[in-house]
Sequence to fold (391 residues):
Amino acid sequence: MQIIIHRGTHQIGGCITEIQSKRGTRIAIDIGENLPTINKEKNTEIKVVGLNTGNPSFDAVFITHYHGDHIGLYNKIYPNIPIYIGEHSKQIFKILQERLEKVELTSKKDLEKVDSFFTYKIPQKIKVKDILVTPIEVDHSAFNAHMFLIECDGKKLLHTGDFRLHGQRGKSVIKALKKYVKKVDVLICEGTTLSRNNEETITENELQKRAEEIFKNNKYNFVMCSSTNIDRIAAIHKAAIKENKLFVCDKYQKDILMYIDSIARSTLYKFKGKVLSYDDNIFPLMKQRGFVMLVRDNYISKNVIQQFPNNAFIYSQWNGYLNEKFTEYKHLQEFVPKNHIYLHTSGHADFKAIKKVCSTVKPKMIIPIHSENPEAFEQMRIRRLYDKISK
Ligand SMILES: [Zn+2]
Ligand SMILES: [Zn+2]
Fold:
């Protein structure tokens, strides 16, 4: 079994991992776009022979989850290479792409490509010639995110994708690893937080309690968070309902929440009948009852916010985007007030969680990815490989 990390051993996002069997079967795990930093050098596109340049020779691509830094290059690879994604991930990604198509940020052709994705469902195993792939559902800021157990040439490899253990489904991750994975030869592990260790790791439950306090003390509340961070929205929603506030969002966001409601069993994701889609007709009701409204960095949201000057504005996503090295900084500055309340917890594993995964699957070798500080893994006294960037 040959492992090539085409990109991602010294950066967060944009990861592409290749597994190749002795018989020449080739699969890729994730085909991510780089995060939008102002460092232009980092934003150059990557060419991988067999995937998007030279003769097509990849047998399949497996996507861990729908974040752009893992799926963003889906429309840049050869059309005959099958792409596999979790079944709910595909639907959420589709709703997102349909919205982008309306504002001409993606094309009809891209939407057709998304439609053509194959889906996997746990505990189903997928066989690609002599490589066996088992998806394991994990806890992350994307719904229906997965790790992959790869079995090839008599060896076992676990690719973590993005994960954490402090969210709603954190406990089930270790249980699933014990049941489906056990010991592995190689662990390819994300290390996002190892260079962002100034952030406090609180659980989503704790975050929900803090949100309740804010909603208790403020009649009008705006929350800016990712439209596809379902567990965060569920926590905010639960807090709003507890404090007897209206829960308001736009039609696109409501479409996502109604989809989740239709497929999820947990009461946490029961949104039906409790979510109001924003339009002028509910204005008097919003004024009278008080509300929690999910907003976005656009003028429609800004307009509503201006109608309620005495509000609490919660910024509930990574605060790195408010740093000037990110391209979003300038744009976000216009929509995030200076006196905002920062209420967030990472979608990524902290050091303790990474150690817990290591001690569960006991790898002989660990390869850090999705990290700006892979050296931190040395503290675990485990060997690691270095980039083999394809040019
Ligand atoms: Zn990522
Ligand atoms: Zn992610």
User: Anything to note?
Assistant: The chain has two domains: 2-196+348-380, 204-342. The mean pLDDT is 91.
